[in-house]
Write a structure and sequence with these properties.
26% of the residues lie in helices and 18% in strands. It has 5 helices and 10 strands; from the N terminus they run βαββββαβαββαββα. The radius of gyration is 19 Å and the shape is globular. It has 234 residues and is α/β, with parallel strands linked by helices. The strands form 3 sheets. Strands 2-1-5-6 form a 4-stranded parallel sheet, with helices on one face. A 4-stranded antiparallel sheet has the order 8-7-9-10.
């Protein structure tokens, strides 16, 4: 499969992405960094996705040859482009994000996860938005409490408690120990969000546990998750 690359779009400091690529390099895994977008040779032809081309580490890869793409960036950030003149970084990062969004959306190969404007990697939802989806899908939800003050930004959600049960959805597979009902809940949530790769948290192990949160970027360095990702991109 080395002749059919699986690209991992990630920051150069993404240790989990690097570990995944090293473990599966013989199977075609390749790291796609923000700096690669500055290399000549990229191509996106509207209406003709097979003619698209990516450039990774200086080498051109036709879209028709791709095994798949894993996206682990919500957008290209100015800080990820130190080679670009400081005054131009905001503009260049915005243009790169827009280009990648169109390029990824048009690919015929599996994309984990496909862009949802304005994100390159699935929807960027607050905890209460995930809770609304869960309720719409008849998945029990732990209460969501949010304290707001006039003029204050919306606070970041607290991380899931260490006692929470985590299940990782990779395509049709569900990784991790959990009650069959929780596994079905996790798969429905991923499908409802249009995400092929998603971590889902519950507040207990039994079948009556409640949904408490989601993670768009499961740990690719985990062997079970990594193997399932490779299986999802035949």
């Amino acid at each position: 499969m080395a002749d059919r690359p699986l690209l991992v779009l990630a920051d150069e400091r993404d240790v989990a992405a690097q570990a995944f690529v090293e473990r599966h390099r013989a199977q075609g895994a390749r790291l796609l960094l923000p700096a690669d977008l500055s290399r000549p040779g990229w191509c996106h032809r509207v209406g003709d996705p097979a003619a698209s081309v990516a450039v990774v580490a200086g080498g051109a890869i036709p879209a028709s040859a791709l095994r798949g793409v894993i996206t682990r960036l919500a957008a290209i950030a100015p800080a990820q482009l130190p080679h670009v003149a400081w005054a131009d970084r905001d503009y260049v990062a915005s243009e790169m994000s827009a280009f990648l969004g169109a390029w990824l959306s048009a690919l015929a190969c599996p994309v984990l996860n496909r862009p949802v404007v304005p994100s390159l990697s699935g929807p960027v939802w607050r905890r209460e938005q995930w809770a609304r989806l869960a309720l719409d899908l008849d998945v029990p939800v732990a209460p969501v409490r949010l304290a707001l003050r006039p003029g204050m930004p919306t606070p970041a959600p607290p991380p899931p408690d260490a006692a929470c049960v985590r299940l990782d959805v990779v395509g049709r597979a569900v990784i991790g120990p959990g009650h069959p009902r929780l596994r079905a809940h996790a798969r429905r949530l991923a499908e409802g969000a249009g995400m092929a790769l998603l971590g889902v948290f519950f507040d207990a192990e039994d079948g009556n546990a409640r949904f408490v949160g989601a993670d768009r970027w499961p740990d690719l360095s985990d062997r079970s998750i990594g193997d399932a990702v490779m299986d999802s991109a035949p």
